[in-house]
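User: I'm writing a tutorial on reading structure tokens. Could you give me a worked example: one chain, its sequence, then its tokens, then a sentence or two explaining what the tokens reveal?
Assistant: Sure. Here is the example chain.
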Amino acid sequence: MNALINAHTHRGRSRSPYVGLTSNVLPEAQRSHTGVSSGYAQKENHEWFVLRVTYNRTQKAYGIISTSDVQSYMPMHYVIKKEIGKKKRILQPLLPNLIFVYTTREAVNSIIKKKGDETSILKFYLDKTKPLEENGKHPPLTIPFTAMTNFIKATSTSNEHVRIVSSEQCHYKSGDIVKVIDGEFEGVTGKVARIAGQQRVVVEISGLCLVATAYVPTEFIEIVK
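And here are its predicted structure tokens:
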């Protein structure tokens, strides 16, 4: 399996715990501004799909995807846990049991529909806002390329205060779209909200989740016109 959990630096800041699953992604990812984004060049007929991993068998899913030669991304984050009276910083998936893949639908279908019990652990994350297809199921959720690039920027940091949030937790200051112009979240666009007593920028992946950055000072934010 060709997997990587990596930490990069940008202006002296630690960057990007993440998993990149194909070898042709990794060299570009290591050189990118965010630690990951330039490894995902936009390609014709390719889309970002979300795959659900069943039975908490993520490691096995890595192997299935990596041998299929598709580009993929799994955001990771650090959490602080107490073990035997001591605090430890542990790397865990930000969205447990979800893997993002950038490829064609035909390629994903070939991965999911391969014969053998091991591939049954991968399923499409479905878009229930869209009509049923001929097979009687909702179509797979797809994420626009620019939205996914923004999500990668927001989640490719080693800051343990990045978190998945609900809409009820977000106390938005306005409806303005803003861009972070400095700091470890530079380039991220979203909406400013107060969450857990701190000003953060919230990024939305429609139909899937809201992710909040760590604290971002006002001077690092500008309104997108």
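What the tokens reveal: Residues 1-38 have pLDDT under 50 and may be disordered. The first strand starts at residue 8 and ends at 10.
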